[in-house]
Amino acid sequence: MQFQLHTTDTASAARAGTITTAHGVIETPIFMPVGTVGSVKGVSQQQLKDEVDAQIILGNTYHLYLRPGTGILEQAGGLHKFNGWDRPILTDSGGYQVFSLAANRKIKEEGVVFQSHIDGSRHLFTPENVMDTQRTIGADIIMAFDECPPYPSEYGYAKTSMELTHRWLARCVQHFNSTEPKYGYEQSLFPIVQGSTYKDLRRASAEFVAGMECDGNAIGGLSVGEPEEMMYEMCAHCCEFLPADKPRYLMGVGTPWNILENIALGIDMFDCVMPTRNGRNGMLFTTQGVINIRNKKWADDLSPIDQGLDCATSRFYTKAYLRHLFISSEILGLTIASIHNLAFYLHLVRQARQHILAGDYTTWKNSMIPILKQRL
Amino acid sequence: MQFQLHTTDTASAARAGTITTAHGVIETPIFMPVGTVGSVKGVSQQQLKDEVDAQIILGNTYHLYLRPGTGILEQAGGLHKFNGWDRPILTDSGGYQVFSLAANRKIKEEGVVFQSHIDGSRHLFTPENVMDTQRTIGADIIMAFDECPPYPSEYGYAKTSMELTHRWLARCVQHFNSTEPKYGYEQSLFPIVQGSTYKDLRRASAEFVAGMECDGNAIGGLSVGEPEEMMYEMCAHCCEFLPADKPRYLMGVGTPWNILENIALGIDMFDCVMPTRNGRNGMLFTTQGVINIRNKKWADDLSPIDQGLDCATSRFYTKAYLRHLFISSEILGLTIASIHNLAFYLHLVRQARQHILAGDYTTWKNSMIPILKQRL
Predict the structure, then answer these.
(1) Is the Cβ–Cβ distance between A227 and A335 less than 8 Å?
(2) What pLDDT was estimated at residue A24?
(3) What does the alpha-carbon distance between residue B75 and residue A43 come to, in Å, rounded to a whole number?
(4) Which residues form the tRNA-guanine(15) transglycosylase-like domain (chains A, B) (predicted)?
């Protein structure tokens, strides 16, 4: 994997770059749609390419390990072959889902024992076997196995947890380096900074992570309930100690304005379920602001969902029709809202990149945020 | 509307024709996907064109009248403008849904009083106002308001019901002829033959319907629970007394083999929720037979859903991936199965047409039916 840094904004830490992977090029800053079990919910692979123009999608190791399982993924030749997505894929390590979804999880030095949320079966995730699982999934970018402490966490717990994450990281790196890709193309490992909301822990973690000299670095444990200002403070602090010549990935963030603010702090990569999950609830992010499409006011609005986007779906369907689909519980409504929201997120990061390259990112961002936040 | 009859099969009553409407040409025999509330469930308008190649879709007057309502449909300039489907649309009369879905329905000479299944509100459908509603929806083909008796029905009830349907039909025709299209293009009215499973009633009804000299004629009240052989017998009997120079539409039918058998009896048009509804339950109709995609046997089958179809979705996704989507309750599974089944139905009627034109329809049909019926 190669990362080329083209420009850093003069008035902020925003950067425009290019990541080159075995499955193609990613222009940063980038947003990665979440394809939990190998499908971005409600959106076909063709729509992801043609309508959303996604450059990379995310898969969840926890979900894919449980269903369909590594056997069929290996038989298919990896997730790309299994789901027909031939652009880059990043997989998380499963740590976050083990802590948020699984039952009876028990953290030990060796790893985490848990029960499947589907059938109660018992499993063990270790730094080593999670590397193996992601090798088998065939992700272009593999995430280290970490513990993600909740917000708020006591200092003592946050520190102990971070230290465990660091010991696991060392094991991840060693196991990753001692194993080969399964399908003939290169995979990259990204470690994850933890440390909850404590600046000294975040610095220590960022320095430890930076010392691993991986292809890119991630910041985890944010956007878990803390105030937005605290997220920005922690993110900025981490970025200070993460190398500038590697891509920086802020996990699980966030709203459109969160993304623009974090780009300004030096983040290159984002993922979040918000565009698809909120879309399925009828919440649309548009170039003019936020829409609750179920609202009565859209019942006779025959204007396109968003004329400001270069997305056929957003221009073809009207607000009145989309509202009708939601009110009538039609599946197509979920699909249209998901495609639109994802297309909007991708549009937003493309715009951000253009403004970074043009040298006016901060001005543009400050003018955009009030528009993006307004409720229509 | 114009109907041109190209060929009638020598060994059967199968016909190949062309219907020309204001929104384009329909090659018969044809299958019409059902777009209940103005959306074919789970399938986008673009997919309906590009993947399914639907030539005409159906809308349900009962559903569209209740939601989104005629106000917004008129404001949009009709359903074509509201849902973005610019090819032909046929609307049923609402009669069938009033009898199957609505609460506290009461049949009177004037029409039917019923309560909405959505909010319990009271409404009256009459032959006249149902014509007005369909004028407002802007369908290319409008159906007469009829009563659809259940199976089985006593002879006396079937006869009384049929006579009411005939009196309503006369009122429909008179009101239709005394009103104008709302959006500047021509609309056609199709009357409906009833008579339950009684040959003398079916003949009387077909002769009454034929006497109306409408642009096309429909057969209703079949595929409501009677044995298949009885459906074929009634259909053949009706076709005998319906003019050959008008399209014949068999409402609500059916399985792939039902369609091929009824084409052989002289039917030109079909609609059915089966491809979409069964698709959403994981039942796939393919060129090789019927598949229950949830079955364990497909878990590691990495072959395309159906290589025999000229449909990108059916060739792109594998059985193993589609099964995974169904087992994981992913929305995309419903969409893929619906697209595939509809594409298969359209493929089937296209093939039927080619064999009618080639003169070997009956031989082909008899060789196909055992294949279509087999469980894979």
Answers:
(1) no
(2) 98
(3) 30
(4) 13-369
DSSP A145: P
Residue B30 CA: distances (Å) to CA of A213, B26, B90, B249, B349: 63, 7, 12, 9, 6
pLDDT band at residue A206, thresholds of 50, 70 and 90? very high
Measured distance CA(A290)–CA(A285) in Å, rounded: 5
Chain B residues whose beta carbon lies within 8 Å of the beta carbon of residue A332 = 39-44
Phi first, then psi, for residue B189 (nearest 5°) are -105, 130
B333 is in an annotated binding site: no
Check pLDDT > 90 for residue A44: yes
Instruction: Report the C-alpha gap between A251 and B47 in whole angstroms.
Output: 33
**Can A300 be counted among the known catalytic residues?**
no
Shortest Cα–Cα distance, A155 to chain B (Å): 39
Range list of β-strands (E), B209-350: 217-219, 248-250, 269-271, 283-286, 289-292
Query: What CA–CA distances, in Å, run from A191 to A65, A134, A210, A258, B344?
Result: 20, 14, 9, 22, 48
User: How far apart (Å, rounded) are the C-alpha atoms in residues A360 and B84?
Assistant: 39
Question: Are A139 and A90 spatial neighbours (Cβ–Cβ below 8 Å)?
Answer: yes
B259: closest CA among B334, B361, B336? Answer: B361
Query: How far is it, in rounded angstroms, from Cα A346 to Cα B120?
Result: 44
The pLDDT value given to residue A102: 83
- DSSP annotation of A51 reads I
Asked whether the beta carbons of residue A302 and residue B75 sit closer than 8 angstroms, the reply is yes
What average pLDDT does this structure show over A307-318?
A: 97
What residues in B contact A43, CB-CB < 8 Å? 332
Q: How many CB atoms lie within 10 A of CB B81?
A: 17
Which are the contacts of A81, defined by CB distance < 8 A and separation ≥ 6? Answer: A138
A93 annotated binding-site participant:
yes
Task: Please write the tens of the pLDDT for every residue from B308-333.
Answer: 999 999 999 999 999 999 999 999 99
Please confirm, yes or no, whether B53 is among the known catalytic residues: no
Give the residues across from B286 on adjacent strands. B289
Check CB contact under 8 Å for B300 and A72.
yes
Please give the mean pLDDT across all residues of chain B. Answer: 97
Q: B 178-197 residues with CB below 8 A of A?
A: none
- Does A96 belong to an annotated binding site? yes
Q: What is the pLDDT of residues B146-170, one digit of tens each?
A: 999 999 999 999 999 999 999 999 9
pLDDT at B101 over 90: no
Segment (H or E) for A132: helix A127-137
The owner of tokens 């199976």 is B151
- pLDDT score of A368 more than 90: yes
Q: Do B299 and A68 touch (CB under 8 A)?
A: yes
Interface membership of B71 toward A (CB under 8 Å): yes
Catalytic residue (one of A9, A215, A268, A271):
A271
Instruction: Give CA torsion, residues B308, B312, B315, B319, to 10 deg.
Output: -120
Contact with chain A for residue B312, Cβ under 8 A: yes
**Residue A165, CB half-sphere, CA atoms under 13 Å: how many?**
32
- Taking the C-alpha atoms of residue A372 and residue B265, their distance in angstroms, rounded to an integer, is 60
- Return the structure tokens found at A252: 């699980």
Return d(Cα B209, Cα B328) in angstroms, integer. 50
Measured between CB atoms, which of B46, B313, B321 is closest to A83? B321
Count the neighbouring beta carbons within 10 Å of the beta carbon of residue A262: 27
**Strands lying side by side in the sheet with B122-125:** B103-107, B112-115, B122-125
Q: Rounded to whole angstroms, how far apart are CA atoms A3 and A19?
A: 5
Question: Which letter does DSSP use for residue A147 in this model?
Answer: -
Q: Is the ipTM of this complex over 0.95?
A: yes
Residue B58 is which amino acid?
Answer: L
